[in-house]
Design a protein that fits this description.
- By secondary structure, this protein is α+β, with helices and mostly antiparallel strands.
- Helix content is about 35%, strand content about 20%.
- The strands form 6 sheets. The protein has an 8-stranded mixed beta sheet, with helices on one face. Strands 2-1-3-4 form a 4-stranded mixed beta sheet.
- Helix 8 links the parallel strand 9 and strand 10.
- The chain is globular.
- The termini are far apart.
Amino acid sequence: MKMSGNGGNRLSMGLFSVLTSLILLATLIFVNLTAAKIPSQYTEKDISGTGLYSLTEQTKETVGQISEDIELYWIVQSGEENSELGVLLNRYSSLSHHIKVTKVDPIVNPGFAEQYTGDQVNNNSIIVAGNTRSRFIDYSKIFVRNYSYFSDSDAETVFDGENQITSAIDYINNGYMPKLYKLTGHGEKTLSSSLEEQISRENYQLEKLDLVGLDSVPDDTDCVIIAGPAKDITEKEAECLSDYIKKGGRLLVYTDYEHTELPKLMSLLDGYGIEVEPGLILEANQYMCYGNYPMQLLPLIGYHDITMPLVKGGYSVLVPMGHGLKIPENSPSGITVTGLLQTSADSYAKEGKISSVSKAAGDSEGPFCLGAAIEDSGSKAKIVWYTSSDLLNKDYDELVNGSNIDLMLNSLGWLSGKDSSIAIHSKKISGNKLTVPSGAAGHLGILLIGIIPLAYLAVGAVISMRRRKR
């Protein structure tokens, strides 16, 4: 029996449609399978206001140095997974083939976490484990409640997952923990428990140092911290610190305008051409002070290894109640002195009892240096000196989203020779604070309260008049 021409055409068209559908289906399956293999940073876009799911350059650099396989054990009951943490862990696993994320249900495997920690393990905690070292990160350290002395609002929740995990990876990868000593016995400022915890999290060991009765700074010292002493060191202590510097020692010093008359401490700057300038600095440039407080300085940030992460990120540093340092135009041979923070030319310094913040005859004129990095190419000594110990105050630090403490951690990294200085900002769930200088705040007020409403009224009036004419 012979098939008609129309029947043959219909059969051919039917076979062609089926074949085309099969090819399309196979293509879709292939595309989906291929897309599943693409790292999550290329397939998932972070649209959160604070970059909650984005990994910083510091993390990428640290992960890029991994030389062994590292497991990220996510301790969580099935169905209780935190979505933010899940996305973050996927980002880590996609950065390196050395990183593997494994979910462990504590109900199914109750004794697993005991291999790594004796602490209570909460849901959504993380264990970062290498071949010989491990670190436990409790959920309470990943989502942290922050309270501010200056704020009347409720406490903020910050997401510190990246900081915690990257720091743990850095520790496991190299195991290097520089030894820091904080000088005591001279009325120095006490470091807050949160700051000490942050220093520890950045893989430093921190201990107190009382030089009374000692002949030298301990041999295992990578850096000595001197935080806002109220009285001078002794002649013997000055000799110990001076000998330590001559042997290539490292100092991180914070001094205050009320206590610049400390000749033995200041003698540590002898030979570098730097002079300590007395008096409280006030800023007349409203774009370089916080709010309406001329003594709360928002200085220009200079270019240096210490400050580059802040400059690149567009962050501000808040220096409350600072005094000045006079930096030499020409440093002594072999010495490099770099200004890190500087006020405007409109700033001025008042000495003695201050009855008015207005500039008066006899006040020293700016600009002033508020921080300097010193490097001796001969002895290999390094010193970083800041002119306000309130840079370490948690509440001032929060006003600039943690930049003050980042500055300290970056300074410690440069001083101690840490190749990777973590210093990753915690990310607020609700968004970061906007640091607005007083001058900009005034102009914004005029714009938002005056110009924009008047513009809307003018546009409305024009539209109303045109409608009436119709």
